[in-house]
């Protein structure tokens, strides 16, 4: 249900709903769905075991289910939601971006990033984005539609399968971190994103059994949805895409700021930190001569000091045709120093994937 004051988006005329999938349903709903197909309710747990624990959505692998039942169950609860258009890899294979075509032809992206101590997957929650941030490829493309819970979850299931099967260099591995920082504004697709978090973190075989603490949800600052998210009781990390400490500039860089100002967004973030016990991540794309001035760094430091917070500075990955680019190295260093002078923890994000159109939305745009 929409929250009062929350942004809502119309479904494009004639748009088809994604087919019902096991991952859209709670464990109780799965039993009901299986019964509707004329099968015994315990088949729901068998299907969940195959999909969430074994990542097996091919009926031929369901040897504990009668052959005569497999096709019906697959068609009714494990339809094909998305197919790989192509993979693009860099960093000696440690970074792999996937372009997906959804059942209706819509394109979305996910990125798998392997580090020495962890494996992170960046996933999409919408096809396109309605936030209209001018420096973002996804924002400039506009919103096609929300993804279903299952379409979100399946990106991770496919990633976990590829890691297990050694498709990513470095040997078999397990996914440790998930970031909702791909295409879309997660909190503008609230119910499906929350449903996906529950499927990701419910214990096997009801879900994938991942830790909430390994999940980060990013938002540009939809304040009513942030407050609702705080009341869910999750232990996920919340990341706020701030990009400017002053309302005058942020109104331009993040247009939703005309509705909820910087201090309102930060107040909602501090409330989430208090209720979840988790540190807030402030995402800040450094854009040359736009938001990287020393006085803005000082102002940001004053806003954030003495709070449970960490700043993640992101050298801008320019999109084709953009008039903006990354900050000069000396300006980046000065920005870091100004934040540290206020006692605010800060890191500069590792810039991966530029040679494979790493910024969200670039691969889909090039395919179009």
From TrEMBL:
<comment type="function">
    <text>Specifically methylates position 2 of adenine 2503 in 23S rRNA and position 2 of adenine 37 in tRNAs.</text>
</comment>
<feature type="active site" description="Proton acceptor">
    <location>
        <position position="109"/>
    </location>
</feature>
<dbReference type="GO" id="GO:0032259">
    <property type="term" value="P:methylation"/>
</dbReference>
<dbReference type="InterPro" id="IPR013785">
    <property type="entry name" value="Aldolase_TIM"/>
</dbReference>
<keyword id="KW-0963">Cytoplasm</keyword>
<dbReference type="InterPro" id="IPR027492">
    <property type="entry name" value="RNA_MTrfase_RlmN"/>
</dbReference>
<feature type="binding site">
    <location>
        <begin position="184"/>
        <end position="185"/>
    </location>
    <ligand>
        <name>S-adenosyl-L-methionine</name>
    </ligand>
</feature>
<dbReference type="Pfam" id="PF21016">
    <property type="entry name" value="RlmN_N"/>
</dbReference>
<dbReference type="GO" id="GO:0008168">
    <property type="term" value="F:methyltransferase activity"/>
</dbReference>
<keyword id="KW-0698">rRNA processing</keyword>
<feature type="binding site">
    <location>
        <position position="218"/>
    </location>
    <ligand>
        <name>S-adenosyl-L-methionine</name>
    </ligand>
</feature>
<feature type="active site" description="S-methylcysteine intermediate">
    <location>
        <position position="360"/>
    </location>
</feature>
<dbReference type="InterPro" id="IPR048641">
    <property type="entry name" value="RlmN_N"/>
</dbReference>
<feature type="binding site">
    <location>
        <begin position="241"/>
        <end position="243"/>
    </location>
    <ligand>
        <name>S-adenosyl-L-methionine</name>
    </ligand>
</feature>
<feature type="domain" description="Radical SAM core">
    <location>
        <begin position="115"/>
        <end position="355"/>
    </location>
</feature>
<keyword id="KW-0489">Methyltransferase</keyword>
<dbReference type="InterPro" id="IPR058240">
    <property type="entry name" value="rSAM_sf"/>
</dbReference>
<keyword id="KW-1015">Disulfide bond</keyword>
<keyword id="KW-0949">S-adenosyl-L-methionine</keyword>
<dbReference type="InterPro" id="IPR040072">
    <property type="entry name" value="Methyltransferase_A"/>
</dbReference>
<feature type="compositionally biased region" description="Basic and acidic residues">
    <location>
        <begin position="21"/>
        <end position="30"/>
    </location>
</feature>
<dbReference type="InterPro" id="IPR004383">
    <property type="entry name" value="rRNA_lsu_MTrfase_RlmN/Cfr"/>
</dbReference>
<keyword id="KW-0408">Iron</keyword>
<feature type="binding site">
    <location>
        <position position="136"/>
    </location>
    <ligand>
        <name>[4Fe-4S] cluster</name>
    </ligand>
</feature>
<comment type="similarity">
    <text>Belongs to the radical SAM superfamily. RlmN family.</text>
</comment>
<dbReference type="Pfam" id="PF04055">
    <property type="entry name" value="Radical_SAM"/>
</dbReference>
<feature type="binding site">
    <location>
        <position position="317"/>
    </location>
    <ligand>
        <name>S-adenosyl-L-methionine</name>
    </ligand>
</feature>
<protein>
    <recommendedName>
        <fullName>Probable dual-specificity RNA methyltransferase RlmN</fullName>
        <ecNumber>2.1.1.192</ecNumber>
    </recommendedName>
</protein>
<keyword id="KW-0819">tRNA processing</keyword>
<keyword id="KW-0479">Metal-binding</keyword>
<feature type="binding site">
    <location>
        <position position="129"/>
    </location>
    <ligand>
        <name>[4Fe-4S] cluster</name>
    </ligand>
</feature>
<feature type="region of interest" description="Disordered">
    <location>
        <begin position="1"/>
        <end position="30"/>
    </location>
</feature>
<keyword id="KW-0411">Iron-sulfur</keyword>
<dbReference type="InterPro" id="IPR007197">
    <property type="entry name" value="rSAM"/>
</dbReference>
<keyword id="KW-0808">Transferase</keyword>
<keyword id="KW-0004">4Fe-4S</keyword>
<feature type="binding site">
    <location>
        <position position="133"/>
    </location>
    <ligand>
        <name>[4Fe-4S] cluster</name>
    </ligand>
</feature>
